[in-house]
Amino acid sequence: MRLFALKGTEALGASIAAALGHPPDAHEERDFEDGEHKARPLVSVRGQAVYVVHALDGMAGASANDKLVKLLFFIAACRENGASSVTAIVPYLAYARKDRQTKSRDPVTTRYVAQLFEAVGTDCLITLEVHNFAAFQNAFRCRTLHLESRQLFVPVIRRRADGLPVTVFSPDGGGVKRAQLLKEALESEIGTEVGFGFMEKRRSRGVVSGDLFAGDVEDRVVFIVDDMISTGGTILRAASACRERGAKRVFALAAHGLFRAGIEPFVDSPDLEGVVVTDTVAAAGQQAGRFPGNMLEVVSCGPMIAETIRRLETGEPLSGLLGMED
Fold first, then answer.
1. 54 closest CA partner among 148, 117, 141
2. CATH number at residue 42
3. Is 201 a catalytic residue?
4. What is the pLDDT of residue 92?
5. Per the database record, which ranges form the Ribose-phosphate pyrophosphokinase N-terminal domain (predicted)?
6. Where are the beta strands (DSSP E) in 91-152?
């Protein structure tokens, strides 16, 4: 087995490697003056099962496009040099938000990205908490494994709730299923009923609307769950609505802490007591200083990804990690 972590995902790669007990294998990455780049393994991959870790979030000096192309080329190089299989571990999958046509002549980028991975010979793609799970599953023809963040968040909720009644809340209709599954996982863990709620949200040409609010939040600890936090506007809108309806405390949970420009109102809002994200992208840890006190908590998905790799290597069932029943 070979494990590579490309530039920008080294910290998560180290976490996976430590949990797996397999140090990252050596590779080279070079950037050229004209913007081109190359990456190659520095160890033999012939006959090996190769795992390549790379999150596709844009960052300073490397756009999502740059990182996607580098990953694709690296996968192709491994196949070119005799790897028996190549698994792409893409904890944050770029272009997953545009999964259907909503305007005339819209692209369907989720499907296009899937075709690119398939074209270079990817055998399996592992990701965490995609924007639209059904669209993701239907876009790919190679094997895919979708890891769930709820097993990482349940212990956090138990600790943060401090024995008070809890409501799990979706900030929009698209995340209702994600919130319901977290609610069920939490109820199974603590053995008591957990509240549920959601807000209506419609976005057209950059304008957000929708006033429908469902769920009991009064005198409860509310955990608003989403797949990502970019500028935080969607979650902040829901947090304010929950506070107006008497929520005692409000926390935000998201797998991907992107924390883009414009995050300041989210960070400074008195409506949010805490924010919990995973380390799928480097920004989650790098931006911690922008949050006051202990407002931001980052939980690692490295051990969960490592366990997925271990089970793939040993042939053990994956259903528990994927949030599925046997």
1. 117
2. 3.40.50.2020
3. yes
4. 96
5. 1-121
6. 124-128, 143-147
